[in-house]
Every structure is written in structure tokens, then in C-alpha cells.
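Inverse folding, one chain.
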């Protein structure tokens, strides 16, 4: 099944209505790092929830939309009753950051959905657009609650989740997002209830461009389009985007046809062994040694994401206190 996604590249709130301009791309929920070789990050089009990259030589863009942490759950019985039970278990759960938990069964990829019936993710009604985190203590409590009720046979903790939306950029046709209601037009703030957002955007942009000597055409089709009448270089392209953003409060955006896929990379929460920094499926003195080595000489000694989760005994990241806690447990001093 194909879904159409449009990427809004701004921290401000806006409504998007325009036709996709770019080539088809894959929609992937992943914890895998994306190779940014040959790309530059466009800071003014990025924010705390998304990073926007544009290739310096090729007509390509990457939008990385950051998502809240997820714990994917596989249940012994693949039925709606299991998911309802999980929802009931976490109805009153509060994370260490003061957030609640939402249970979702909206997993896009069919193969991935065969492994996991649902996932839990933090949410907060007061911060609906924020990227929220589970602490390692939260993850352990979730695991304990699921195991206590014999409702899970696999769990993956994904704590670096994002949607990389890759596609092409068109240097000669730039779609302009509908207006943000943060600007005044001719000294008068327009009422958003009486004006269509794209009309407001068009007037803002038209007023701004009327005093500029630009060889461009502004037209309304399925949305508001600003079309330079001659090809733009990468530098000119970004400069135009930034100028309009800074002076009009409008942000360019790109549209994609996206094929849903999903990636299961993350921490194996179900089989995680507390204190097992080197991931040999056992907690022993070598784990304490590795922790101290990685802190003293991180360029030489590294710990995997799985090992970091296992070794973080108190939920505040890897420190010497984790090595000490492991030693105390092994010596039965704890």
C-alpha cells in the first residue's frame, strides 16, 4: 500500500496543501544511521524534531523526522485481545520524565508486523509534537510488567527512531507552504478564520517580491508555487529558501510518494542481561573492566548500544558507578 507524505520543514505550525514535486522514495522507520556523505544540513530548515539535508552535487534531499522512543512487542497470541491487555497494563503508567504511554498497532511493513503486534511509546498531551524518551529504567519496568503478566515473547527497545524520507529536489519549481499566521499584511493581521492559508501566503510573498528585482513567477495551482524563470544553483536555491523564510515566515517543502517499510534494529530488551556490557550473555568482572576502559579510553574501547543498555544499572548513562555496582553484585556486597 502506498501512502503520500508531505514534509513540513519548520518548527512553526502550518497547514500543507500542494502537489508533490519529487521522485518516489522509501518510507522507513529505522534506528539505523543514515549516510550523510555528500550532503549538507540546512540549519534554518531543521529543528529539534527533524533534520533536513541536501546533496551538494546531486538533485537529492533527505528529511530525517525524529520520533519518540518505541518498544516493539511480540505476543504469544497474535490477536486483538493481547493488544487490549497491553493497553490496560499501561493505562496508568508514568515514565521517569512524567509522560504517559501510548500503545499502537500501526506497524507499516507486513514482514515486520509478523514479528511484532504493537509498540509502546511515550506521549504527553501537553507536548504533542515533542520527541519523548524512555529511560533505561522505564524500559526495564515495561519489560518487568510484560513478563509478570506473561504477555510478551520478544521486545525491541528502539531509542533512536526516525523517518528518513529520501527524494529528489527540483531547482526550478519551488513549492511554497501556506502561510504561518505570524506576520501582518499591510500593517493588519489577517484573520485565519476568514482567509484561506494559501491566499494569505500568496499575498505575503507577493508583497515581499514586489519590491525585489527577481525573475520569478508566482502562481496558484494545487498550491502556491514560486517558479524561478531560470535555473538556480544549489547556493542560489538555499539562499532563496532562507530569504523567504526569514522575511515572510514561509517555508519551502518537498512532497514524496513513499512506500512503507520498517526496520527492527534496536536493543534486544527481552533477552537483555543486566550488567552485561560486553554482550556475552553473562554479567562478570570483565563487564566492569570494559566499562572502566571505555570511560578512560573511548577511542580504543567501545561498548555497543546493547551493551550500553545492559550496563546502565542506574538509568543515568554509563559511569564508573555502574562498574562498581557490577563488582558489588558479583561479590555479593549489594
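Residues assigned per position:
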Amino acid at each position: 500500500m502506498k501512502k503520500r507524505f508531505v514534509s513540513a520543514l519548520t518548527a512553526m505550525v502550518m497547514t500543507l496543501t500542494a502537489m508533490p514535486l519529487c521522485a518516489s522514495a522509501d518510507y522507513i522507520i529505522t534506528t539505523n544511521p543514515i549516510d550523510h556523505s555528500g550532503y549538507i544540513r540546512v540549519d534554518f530548515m531543521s529543528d529539534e524534531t527533524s533534520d533536513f539535508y541536501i546533496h551538494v552535487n546531486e538533485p537529492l534531499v533527505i528529511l530525517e523526522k525524529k520520533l519518540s522512543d518505541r518498544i516493539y512487542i511480540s505476543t504469544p497470541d497474535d490477536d486483538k485481545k493481547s493488544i487490549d491487555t497491553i493497553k490496560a497494563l499501561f493505562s496508568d503508567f508514568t515514565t521517569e520524565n512524567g509522560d504517559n504511554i501510548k500503545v499502537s498497532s500501526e506497524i507499516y511493513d507486513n514482514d515486520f508486523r509478523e514479528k511484532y503486534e504493537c509498540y509502546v511509546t511515550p506521549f504527553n498531551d501537553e507536548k504533542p509534537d515533542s520527541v519523548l524518551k524512555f529511560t533505561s529504567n522505564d524500559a526495564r519496568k515495561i519489560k518487568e510488567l510484560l513478563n509478570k503478566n506473561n504477555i510478551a515473547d520478544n521486545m525491541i527497545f528502539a531509542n533512536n527512531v526516525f523517518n528518513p524520507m529520501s527524494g529528489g529536489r527540483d531547482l526550478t519549481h519551488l513549492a511554497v507552504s501556506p502561510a504561518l499566521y505570524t506576520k501582518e499584511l499591510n500593517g493588519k493581521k489577517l484573520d485565519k478564520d476568514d482567509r484561506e492559508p494559501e491566499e494569505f501566503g500568496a499575498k505575503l510573498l507577493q508583497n515581499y517580491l514586489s519590491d525585489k528585482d527577481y525573475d520569478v513567477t508566482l502562481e496558484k495551482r494545487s498550491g502556491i508555487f514560486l517558479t524561478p524563470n531560470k535555473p538556480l544553483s544549489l547556493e542560489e536555491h538555499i539562499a532563496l529558501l532562507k530569504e523567504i523564510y526569514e522575511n515572510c515566515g514561509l517555508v519551502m517543502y518537498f512532497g514524496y510518494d513513499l512506500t512503507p517499510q520498517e526496520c527492527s534494529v534496536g536493543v534486544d530488551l527481552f533477552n537483555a542481561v543486566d550488567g552485561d556490557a560486553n554482550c556475552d550473555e553473562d554479567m562478570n568482572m570483565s563487564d566492569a573492566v570494559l566499562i572502566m576502559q571505555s570511560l578512560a579510553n573511548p577511542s580504543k574501547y567501545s561498548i555497543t548500544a546493547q551493551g550500553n543498555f545492559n550496563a546502565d544499572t542506574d538509568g543515568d548513562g554509563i559511569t564508573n558507578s555502574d562498574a562498581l555496582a557490577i563488582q558489588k553484585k558479583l561479590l555479593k556486597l549489594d
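The two ends are 54 Å apart (CA to CA). The CA atoms of residues 187 and 204 lie 12 Å apart.
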